[in-house]
Design goal:
The complex is a heterodimer of chains A (261) and B (532).
Chain A: E1 10-21, E2 24-35, E3 39-43, H1 50-57, E4 65-70, E5 73-77, H2 87-97, E6 98-101, H3 113-123, H4 129-142, H5 158-170, E7 176-180, H6 188-203, E8 207-211, H7 215-221, E9 224-229, E10 232-238, H8 239-244, H9 249-260
Parallel strand pairs in A: 3-8, 3-9, 6-7, 7-8
Antiparallel strand pairs in A: 1-2, 1-4, 4-5, 9-10
Helix pairs in contact in A: 3-4, 3-5, 4-5, 5-6
Chain B: H1 2-29, E1 40-45, E2 55-56, E3 62-63, H2 65-77, E4 80-85, H3 91-96, E5 102-103, H4 111-116, E6 118-119, E7 124-133, E8 149-153, H5 157-164, E9 169-173, H6 176-184, E10 190-194, H7 195-201, E11 208-220, E12 223-224, H8 229-244, H9 247-254, H10 260-266, H11 277-287, H12 292-301, H13 303-337, H14 340-355, H15 358-368, H16 378-404, H17 407-415, H18 420-450, H19 462-473, H20 476-511, H21 519-530
Parallel strand pairs in B: 1-4, 1-5, 8-9, 8-10
Antiparallel strand pairs in B: 2-3, 5-12, 6-12, 7-10, 7-11
Helix pairs in contact in B: 1-13, 2-8, 2-9, 13-14, 13-16, 13-18, 13-19, 14-16, 15-16, 16-18, 16-21, 17-18, 18-20, 18-21, 19-20
The chains are: A alpha/beta (261), B alpha/beta (532).
The complex binds adenosine-5'-triphosphate and magnesium ion.
Chain lengths: 261, 532
């Protein structure tokens, strides 16, 4: 298992995680650790398995083999073992602690964004309605949407929608946030407002894992960067080091065009 | 959308309650007569196109020679007669199903029919009468009809005779009046039908003539279940008294049906005992050309009947649709999210229902299920039949609606910690509801029209009322227009609702976020809708 900073407060440990679809192996043994409060960027060429990895971490997919412990929930599976019978229970427990933000936002279009944020605390956490509304207001204020609370997603810009989606994920008070290319479907001028939200969260000490193509953001904001290729982690490096002095040939190739910029 | 879900019970309960109430009344009404005082005699006849046997006059009273006769018989039996209407084709099945005790409807006693039911002694003896256009040749035998086109009614002795005669082209009618009309205007050469019918519809018509001898001998008998031996004896004893007392002569004379043949058969004097008032009144009414005012007045008089039919149609349609929506919705959820074997069963159900005619399903529910001990009231059979049928179509609508919601919605909901059920309830279903609203509303309009089939399980809905009024007034045209207008008026609010929801969806589309696909779904809904 690769550890980076040698600290002792891991919130996420993955060891030998494999995942395939049909006969094709997509993740070929992934191992890494994330410490509480870290901001980790995952980069790599298209199709290398970044989304699949995040989906496994959030139990939207079940790993084929390996073990992972996320926010205190442990899931492990040996080679060709059947799906653990308590998997859906474990997945449920895990998702209470882990928030996820999607490239396509996936806001619920039939609800106002206040309702989008309020729904999970209300029906999953079963908090009293006052507290639910208070939390929704507070979170929307935090992402700068306090004056848009009664808008429907379709009435908002992409950047606003993605910030609302982040607020929605935060409503479960997660210990870990996963982002799958949160800015990839945004117009360039809207990217910054979303990244700023993530920087603020980092400043508050939130643990975040971000799959991204925003190399500048990855370099500036991350504690470290994971480079993946063909279903494997090629390199885990300090954010500057990977850009200035990539250890692996594949990393160098991938980053070439960014380095030139 | 949660409010939408929560109004369903408000719709359901009063209506279900009404159904129960209705069925309770129905059940009581058809309870075993033996314990009541006086005991009840439940009798059935088809009243459409059944002059002079049993028919409704313009005051909506049931009259006819068989009506008078059964009243006389019931009086001798010390029973209270209660009339149960049914279609001609449903009379014998309804008897077997226990809807009534006996059928008196000009049924000829034949060896084939005696296999199915027990008959009383004959209460009328008659023959087949050939009628052709005034001035055409007088036939001598049935063989003379070779090469000619001859009309008659379904399931009659006349039809059997014609089919046995070589070279005759038989044309089968459901309305005797239309058969005679076609003779008068030269479409067919003649009509062969029971003498009483010819006497009422052809004899008074100056364009027609009786032609040839009496063909065959027809014995009318009262039909009962074969196992009701005691009832058969009771009816026969009462019938004998009605004959011996001469009461039958009075009845038949009143209706102008006392003939030498019948006098000889019963050993009574040949001349009628009373004037043929019933016959004369019918002829006067029949010959009258109603003015426009008469016409209006007639429909005002029929108002309560039409209203009743409208309520039955609405009741069956609305409850049928609610059943279809709830069941169809469940089926769709199973089909999209359910476990494998259940999915398979649901698919089978949908295919079976969509592959068989609604009418067959209704008849099966009403007349078939009693064979395995399930007796549904006509109303319940109508509601369940329509509901089960449309559930299959609704299931397809909802399935399309559920599949149209992007997968990311379910994933986002689950990532928030919702269970699959919660995700369905709060996220997926409300969205798909909005998508399927237009096709579902359109389906309600087709269901409203298909509900006309429940008249086949003895319900007097709007279509039943149409038949009833038209056969009393011989006015299929005017009545048809009135009934059609009512169907249109009932459907109108739903047509408007469908249109406005469509427009709303189309309008909402402009502002929707990119992955919220509406047009394909709306189109899909319509394609599904077109399949009928
Ligand atoms: N549900 C699935 N069924 C079959 N194959 C899949 C499925 N999801 C992903 N894959 C395959 O797994 C591989 C990795 O996909 P993944 O989406 O994880 O890549 P990615 O690194 O996120 O790429 P991108 O940068 O383009 O988003 C791809 O080859 C893809 O075709
Ligand atoms: Mg991806």
């Amino acid at each position: 298992m690769q550890t980076i900073n040698g600290q002792n407060n891991p919130i996420l440990c993955v060891n030998g995680l494999k995942k395939g679809y049909n006969q094709m192996e997509v993740l070929k043994g992934i191992s890494f650790t994330v410490e509480e409060g870290d901001l980790v960027s995952i980069i790599g060429p298209s199709g290398c398995g970044k989304s699949t990895l995040l989906r496994c971490l959030n139990c939207l997919e079940i790993l084929d083999e390996g073990e992972m412990e996320v926010a205190g929930v442990r899931i492990s599976r040996r080679h060709s073992e059947p799906i653990p019978r308590n998997f859906s229970q474990l997945a449920h427990n895990l998702r209470q602690k882990v928030g996820m933000v999607f490239q396509q936002f996936n806001l619920f279009p039939h609800m106002t964004i206040r309702e989008n944020v309020a729904i999970a605390p209300r029906v999953v956490l079963k908090l009293p309605e006052e507290e639910v509304q208070e939390r929704a207001r507070e979170l929307l204020r935090k992402v700068g949407l306090e004056d848009r609370m009664e808008y429907y997603p379709s009435q908002l810009s992409g950047g606003q929608q993605q910030r609302a989606a982040i607020a929605r994920a935060l409503a479960m008070k997660p210990r870990l946030m996963l982002y799958d290319e949160p800015t990839s479907s945004l117009d360039p001028e809207l990217v910054e407002e979303v990244l700023q939200v993530m920087r603020n969260l980092d400043a508050e000490g939130m643990t975040q894992i971000i799959v991204t193509h925003e190399m500048k953001f990855a370099r500036d904001a991350s504690d470290y960067i994971i480079f993946m290729d063909e279903g494997q982690i090629v390199e885990i490096s300090d954010e500057d080091e990977i850009f200035l002095n990539p250890k692996d040939e594949r990393t160098r190739k991938f980053l070439n065009r960014w380095i030139k910029e | 959308m949660r409010t939408f879900l929560s109004i369903i019970p408000w719709f359901c309960f009063p209506l279900l309650y009404l159904t129960c109430l209705w069925d309770a009344v129905w059940a009581e009404d058809r309870g075993n007569g033996k314990e009541e005082n006086p005991p009840i005699l439940r009798w059935a006849a088809a009243t459409d196109s059944n002059v002079p046997f049993a028919f409704y006059n313009e005051k909506n009273e049931l009259i006819g020679f068989e009506v008078d006769l059964i009243k006389a018989i019931a009086a001798e039996m010390g029973r209270k007669p209660i009339f149960v209407p049914n279609d001609w084709d449903g009379l014998i099945p309804g008897l077997g199903r226990g809807l009534y005790d006996l059928v008196i409807c000009g049924i000829e006693i034949t060896p084939e029919k005696e296999q199915e039911v027990a008959f009383s002694d004959p209460y009328y003896v008659t023959f087949e009468q050939y009628v052709n256009k005034k001035g055409s040749e007088n036939i001598q035998s049935l063989e003379d009809l070779s090469g000619k086109t001859v009309g008659t009614l379904t399931q009659t002795a006349a039809l059997a005779m014609l089919q046995r005669t070589p070279g005759v082209k038989v044309k089968i009618y459901t309305q005797e009046i239309n058969a005679y009309k076609d003779v008068a205007n030269g479409r067919i050469d003649g009509v062969l039908l029971d003498f009483p019918i010819a006497k009422y519809f052809a004899y008074p018509n100056p364009l027609l003539q009786f032609s040839g001898p009496q063909f065959g001998q027809l014995l009318y008998g009262i039909a009962m279940r074969k196992e009701d031996k005691a009832l058969q004896q009771e009816v026969n004893a009462a019938l004998r008294k009605v004959i011996q007392s001469g009461k039958i002569r009075d009845i038949l004379s009143y209706w102008g049906l006392w003939t030498p043949t019948i006098a000889a058969a019963f050993g009574l004097p040949e001349e009628p005992s009373v004037p043929a008032t019933g016959y004369d009144e019918f002829l006067t009414k029949y010959a009258e050309k109603p003015t426009f005012l008469d016409w209006i007045e007639r429909y005002v008089n029929y108002g309560p009947l039409i209203l009743q039919g409208t309520l039955v149609t609405l009741h069956v349609s609305i409850l049928g649709m609610i059943l279809a929506i709830l069941l169809g919705f469940t089926l769709a959820l199973i089909r999209v999210y359910g476990p494998e074997p259940l999915k398979w069963l649901v698919t089978l159900y949908v295919e079976i229902i969509r592959g068989t005619p609604l009418l067959v399903q209704l008849l099966f529910l009403f007349y078939g299920l009693p064979n395995i001990g399930i007796k549904l009231s006509p109303l319940l059979a109508g509601i369940i039949g329509l509901g089960l049928n449309y559930a299959a179509y609704e299931a397809e609508n909802y399935r399309a609606g559920l599949l149209a919601i992007p997968r990311g919605q379910m994933e986002a909901a689950q990532a928030l910690g919702m269970s699959q059920l919660q995700a369905l309830y709060y996220v997926i279903i409300p969205q798909s509801f909005r998508l399927v609203l237009p096709p579902v509303t359109n389906d309600f309009i087709s269901l409203l029209k298909d509900s006309s089939l429940v008249s086949m399980v003895t319900l007097l809905d709007l279509t039943g009322v149409y038949n009833r009024i038209a056969t009393q007034t011989f006015d299929y045209f005017g009545t048809g227009i009135v009934i059609a207008v009512i169907y249109l008026l009932i459907g109108l609010p739903f047509v408007r609702l469908a249109r406005s929801t469509e427009e709303k969806l189309a309008g909402a589309k402009k502002g929707q976020n990119k992955n919220f696909v509406l047009i394909p779904v709306a189109t899909m809904g319509y394609l599904f809708n077109k399949r009928k």
